[in-house]
Amino acid sequence: MAKEGYQSRMELLQGTLDMLILQTLQWGPRHGYGISQAMASWSGDLFQVDTGSLYPALHRLERKKLVSSKWKVSETGREVKIYSLTTKGKKQLLSERSRWEQLTSGIAGILSPEGK
Fold first, then answer.
1. Distances 46 to 28, 39, 41, 104, 111 between C-alpha atoms, Å
2. Considering the domain 2-111 in this protein, what is its CATH number?
3. Ranges of each domain in the chain
4. Of 29, 43, 85, 110, which is most buried with the most CB atoms under 10 A?
């Protein structure tokens, strides 16, 4: 039972990270560091995703064809892998956002029930 709860929590966290990555790429292609910087900046530094979580998530999303990547030379002359949202990724993002809104609405209802 405890393992099932842990696995469920990990899937929720993994799904949330995937959604946040897809949302970040909705605003344009970025390399991994750019994704993590955007997430940190836009969340007021609440979300600081380490590379040990970010790159496995990007690879997972790429395997699912939700993001695509290509190598480019950055402004600093270094080769970087740039990730972009695919059409399938855009559809997945809409679905994930809808589920997230339902989830947060349910949590808000529990935290602040109208009749209580």
1. 21, 9, 8, 18, 21
2. 1.10.10.10
3. 2-111
4. 85
